[in-house]
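S1.2 Input.
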Amino acid sequence: MKKTAIIYCEGNFGSMDGKTANGLIRNSKKYLIVGVIDSTKANLDSGEFLEGEKNNIPIYASLEHVIETVNPLPEQFIYGIAPADAVLKEDERTIVLKAMENGMDIINPLQEFLTQDEEFTMYAGQYGVTIHDIRKPRPNKDLHIFSGRILDMPTPIIAILGTDSAVGKRTTSVILEAALEAKGYHVSFVATGQTGIIQGAKYGVAIDAMPLQFMIGEIENEIMKAYENDRPDLIIVEGQGALSHPGYVSSCGILRGSRPGAVIVQHPPKRQQLGDFSFLKMPTLESEIDLIERFSDTKVIAVTINHENMTDSEVDKVIVSYEEQLNIPATDVLLHGCDKLITSILEAFPQLEKRTNQLEEVLVN
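S1.3 Output.
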């Protein structure tokens, strides 16, 4: 049984910094989401606000509103905001402590570890609740350095990278995983950030909170676990940040650790400045693709669009333009699905043709 959960996303649901909440509303294998807290969108349906389609998960004005309205109370309180500084604000501490007073376990995706905070640990003991610091790495003695095992691993690997943080790399990864599985392929997804782990990814590690010495080895280790346990047809690795981003090194670790045979790049055409670094301009799609292919022994096989601030007509025009300029498929998976991506994947990995033929034979028979 999934545990019930409320997501705190005050002032940020549907925005870039609300990406943890946004992701959980779109897909949650681990928790049964019963509501979102955001007073600026109170009383709306979260699915209708986010996707234009109702999901019957309401948005509440406050934690007090949840306590007064929801019966039984949610078992989990998920902090659903991803701020650049990754720490709780003073008023948010009060809200999290109030949730603990009301018997809710805390799911904390920040780089501020609440299990190392005396007040939070005292409350946890007093009220019999648990704090889960999602990004808190294991002790160094339990982490892995790069071993090279992945060099002999035969399963195709695709990395979903991007031109900035919070452009929809994880969303595209999850949708592509589901689309491939719907066609009969056995797919393993490796999360590399806190939201994917909270969503219930079987394999994954929050790479941006661990010592750099172990980042590449930990990614390799998660991929090898997926291969050894599942023997999948394909492995999808979630990207973080951007290879060109001056503030992050995550994409470097992902390319080195996963050694992808192909890359799909996610890009928001209307975004002019980097999300959390408004003093820096966005890279061009062409420059990001060139950098990825120069940095790593891989090939960008498709482009996916983040349609923030775009009309459907604008998206369609951009898709045509990118395909003409780059000579690779482009699509928006939220609007148009994954058929183009799957075709590109099958062309990039001829070894999947045998599996494709087997699936077609099953359908015929």
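S1.4 Remarks. The chain has 14 helices and 15 strands.
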